[in-house]
């Protein structure tokens, strides 16, 4: 009987404040969709870091005849065979180095033509203008400075470049976008909480006579509060369910179908369905607990009869 009464009161409360309940559902759905999206974005960035950082190389570019005429780092002339051999020997002795690959001028020219063949500059370049280089795979990509300090300024070395720096700029941009999404999510959560509190207060005010009578006849505080708390929890849970639906639909249409980014951007290792599914219980739990707690604290002063 008591359970039936509580459920009937929940239905009455939701219908009585239908507009505000709808606003709560929408705001909770959007804020938790952003919350889940920001968590997935963090997972995506971390996965991309692990994938790309494992592939980055440190490149030691060697001086050629053109550099000897124009680059102060190559003022002593083009690299000699003896200098190349010494650089290779020193690299193989370093514990931080996993693998060393040599790229000749002809190979560098071929790779440049493959990547930038449509560029106007490509037609004016010749193989002897390209730089020989050593491509070094490090055991730990963070140890670039070990290579840089050992070879920068050495005779025959034009520059030491770390591809990780380029990736750091990309991941910095992605992290910035993620933090912006989190800021919007935080504002949406504040809006959702304010709507929940106002909805509960309006509902409690419209039924203040009923709750006053229940208090006078000895009903417990929890028994009086329960319908209001559960109204907020039900509205929040509906919003959380919608947020989960948004995430599933977004994953399906953006990555797998529709935009089909998994095939169009096959160089990116996208997160899988398991990453999405593991976030759904957290979103549902938040959608249930957040409105219930907000309603509990909002109702405290209305029960002081």
Could you characterize what this model shows?
With 305 residues, this protein is of the alpha+beta class. It contains eleven helices and four strands, in the order ααβααβαβαβααααα. A four-stranded antiparallel sheet has the order 2-3-1-4. Helix 7 packs antiparallel against helix 9, helix 7 packs parallel to helix 11 and helix 9 packs antiparallel against helix 11 (273-299).
Features:
305 residues, alpha+beta, four-stranded antiparallel beta sheet, 11 helices
How is this structure best summarized?
Helices cover 69% and strands 8% of the residues. The chain has 305 residues and is an alpha+beta fold.
How would you summarize the topology of this molecule?
Elements: H1 2-16, H2 18-53, E1 58-62, H3 65-70, H4 81-93, E2 97-103, H5 105-116, E3 133-138, H6 144-151, E4 157-162, H7 163-206, H8 208-216, H9 221-256, H10 261-264, H11 273-299
Antiparallel strand pairs: 1-3, 1-4, 2-3
Helix pairs in contact: 1-9, 2-7, 2-9, 2-11, 7-9, 7-11, 9-11
């Amino acid at each position: 009987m008591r359970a039936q009464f509580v459920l009937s009161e929940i239905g009455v409360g939701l219908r009585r404040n239908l507009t505000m309940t709808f606003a709560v559902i929408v705001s909770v759905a959007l804020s938790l969709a952003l919350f889940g999206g920001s968590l997935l974005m963090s997972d995506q960035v971390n996965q991309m870091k692990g994938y790309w950082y494992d592939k980055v190389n440190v490149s030691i570019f060697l001086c050629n005849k053109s550099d000897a005429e124009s680059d102060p780092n190559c003022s002593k002339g083009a690299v000699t065979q003896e200098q190349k051999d010494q650089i290779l020997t020193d690299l193989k002795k370093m514990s931080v180095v996993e693998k060393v690959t040599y790229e000749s001028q002809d190979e560098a020219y071929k790779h440049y033509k493959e990547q930038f063949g449509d560029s106007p500059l490509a037609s004016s370049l010749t193989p002897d203008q390209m730089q020989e280089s050593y491509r070094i795979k490090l055991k730990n990509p963070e140890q670039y400075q070990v290579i840089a300090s050992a070879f920068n300024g050495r005779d025959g070395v034009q520059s030491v470049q770390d591809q990780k720096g380029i990736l750091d700029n990309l991941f910095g941009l992605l992290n910035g976008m993620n933090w912006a999404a989190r800021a919007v999510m935080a504002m949406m959560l504040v809006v959702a909480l304010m709507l929940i509190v106002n909805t509960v207060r309006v509902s409690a005010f419209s039924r203040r006579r009923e709750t006053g009578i229940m208090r006078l006849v000895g009903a417990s505080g929890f028994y009086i509060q329960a319908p209001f708390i559960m109204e907020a929890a039900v509205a929040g849970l509906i919003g959380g369910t919608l947020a989960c639906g948004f995430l599933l639909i977004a994953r399906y249409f953006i990555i797998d179908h529709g935009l089909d980014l998994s095939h169009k951007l096959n160089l990116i290792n996208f997160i899988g369905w398991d990453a999405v599914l593991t976030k759904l219980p957290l979103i549902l739990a938040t959608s249930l607990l957040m409105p219930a707690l907000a309603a509990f604290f909002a109702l405290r002063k209305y029960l002081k009869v």
